Amino acid sequence: MFGNLMMNPGPWPMAWMPEAPSQPAAQESDIFQKLLLNHEIPMSGQQPQPQPKAQLDISQAPALIRLRGLPFEANEQEILAWMSKYDVSDKVMECKQAVRLYNKPNGKPMGIAVVAINSPEEAEVVLQTLHGKNMRNRYIEVFHHAEGDGGVDKAYVQTPGSGTTGG
Q: Which residue ranges does the record assign to the RRM domain (predicted)?
């Protein structure tokens, strides 16, 4: 008896469905499948999958600041730790190479970094907070930065774990 119901369910499932929408059902099914595949609608018993953040580039940052006078051995993590000491590390934009360190053409560090900041207003706060502070025994100067500003135009960007790339 039950086997027959499973094979031929009859009209009862249609009783709870609303009237046919103006769009064809095939399009709705396609939309539903796309949402499921993109994890925008969780299936029963599943938690929604977080969408990965778009990985921006530092050139897309709303504001940039330049740090000058850094210790030559400083790296990105040390700079971010130094910024967190003054409670401004949360203003650094989450993007690819948010902190860009520069080398001279001969490969030696310049003691200059460019940092991507979330907004021009936050860049002003970071500038006011960090300008004149010391990292180790070095006095750090902080400036607003625009691509092509002097001081880094003939420099090379340090890439993590390797030498240099043209910048």
A: 63-147
